[in-house]
């Protein structure tokens, strides 16, 4: 979440990107956006504002009417579209797995097109199924209809990663899954990101998902007009304008808890928390601290570093910390 480019990772630049459909609909009107190598940028905005159109211009499933898309500095409109799509992983809602092919065959689709030998494909497929939490011994011979929705989504993710693409595009990847499994898949996505750091553009209409998964969030209004491009913490603390403010909505205060780390400098002496207080590690967020208080029915937590207490935080402290960095407009006070 530091917004700096990761060595070796591929940046994406959208430069005055534009799409006018043949019927005259201006879906995207000159969108410019930089995604640092290795980062996840989330596109969020109301239905029909052009999110999917933007995403599909990056891998040229849709041809731009104007502007440029640079992937690693290379203009994709000059690249061979078939080769391009092999270097860009694409994950969509409901996955689009081939129903009459096994999990193994589905995951190996792009490596087969690239002419990898059978053994390399088999090894790669096993490795990826393991990575997405579907042990190949149990799952690789199954057909899509023999899997749950969440499992199918994981297969789709494994398939997108199979040929080690330079970037990943994800269009509402978790929205067809029930809320509990969606949370699990999001957690897994975060875990996978540590293992395979790909520059990613993810489309969602779910602000919680954007805040949880994004290094940066692009808030779009109609015609993919960029209202704000900021880290989740910045967006929640300082919506740039009325549109962004309305979009992040009233529970932004609660969401901000999850992006605000416990400030060490503001801890009270550990003894103030009392003997029964739950413990949270120093790297935790205010939300985790507050959650621990609620779960334990205690008004304070002891904050630890390597297991040793370094201070305490009370529920009132959490409230003060949020209010300090969140000058709410008069209407919301
Ligand atoms: N093939 C097409 N021809 C004409 N207009 C289109 C076409 N595809 C999409 N549009 C229009 O372009 C605009 C942007 O559509 P797009 O699917 O990119 O929006 P979106 O933000 O992804 O929407 P949602 O969140 O509902 O999926 C909409 O007004 C849509 O009706």
Automatic annotation (TrEMBL):
Keywords assigned: ATP-binding, CBS domain, Nucleotide-binding, Transport
Domain CBS intervals: 267-328
Pfam families tied to this protein: ABC_tran
Keyword Repressor set for record: no
This protein's record includes keyword Amino-acid biosynthesis: no
GO molecular function: ATP binding
Domain ABC transporter: 12-248
Domain of life of the native organism: Bacteria
SMART domains: AAA, CBS
PANTHER family: OSMOPROTECTANT IMPORT ATP-BINDING PROTEIN OSMV (PTHR43117)
Family: Belongs to the ABC transporter superfamily.
Protein name as it appears in the record: ABC transporter ATP-binding protein
Organism: Dactylosporangium roseum
């Amino acid at each position: 979440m530091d917004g700096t480019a990761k060595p070796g990772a591929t940046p994406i630049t959208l430069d005055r990107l534009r799409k006018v459909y043949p019927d005259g609909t201006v879906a995207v009107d000159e969108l410019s956006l930089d995604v640092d190598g290795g980062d996840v940028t989330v596109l969020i905005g109301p239905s029909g504002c052009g999110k999917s159109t933007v995403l599909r211009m990056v891998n040229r499933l849709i041809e731009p009417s104007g502007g440029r898309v640079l992937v690693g500095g290379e203009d994709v409109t000059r690249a061979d579209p078939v080769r391009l799509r092999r270097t860009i992983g694409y994950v969509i809602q409901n996955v689009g797995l081939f129903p009459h092919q096994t999990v193994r065959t589905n995951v190996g689709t792009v490596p087969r097109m690239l002419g990898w030998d059978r053994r390399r494909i088999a090894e790669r497929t096993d490795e990826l199924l393991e990575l997405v939490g579907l042990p190949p011994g149990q799952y690789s011979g199954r057909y899509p209809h023999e899997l749950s929705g969440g499992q199918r989504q994981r297969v789709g993710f494994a398939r997108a990663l199979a040929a080690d693409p330079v970037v990943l595009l994800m269009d509402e990847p978790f929205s067809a899954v029930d809320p509990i499994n969606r949370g699990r898949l999001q957690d897994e996505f975060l875990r996978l990101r540590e293992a395979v750091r790909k520059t990613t553009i993810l489309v969602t209409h779910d602000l919680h998902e954007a805040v949880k998964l994004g290094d940066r969030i692009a808030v779009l209004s109609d015609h993919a007009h960029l209202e704000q491009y900021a880290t989740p913490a910045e967006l929640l603390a300082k919506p740039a304008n009325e549109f962004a403010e309305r979009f992040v909505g009233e529970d932004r205060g609660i969401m901000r808890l999850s992006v605000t780390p416990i400030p060490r400098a503001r801890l009270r002496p550990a003894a103030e928390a009392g003997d029964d207080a739950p413990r949270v590690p120093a790297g935790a967020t205010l939300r985790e601290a507050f959650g621990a208080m609620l779960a334990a029915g205690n008004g304070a937590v002891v904050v630890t570093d390597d297991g040793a207490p370094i201070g305490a935080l009370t529920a009132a402290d959490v409230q003060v910390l949020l209010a300090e960095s969140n000058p709410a407009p008069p209407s919301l006070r």
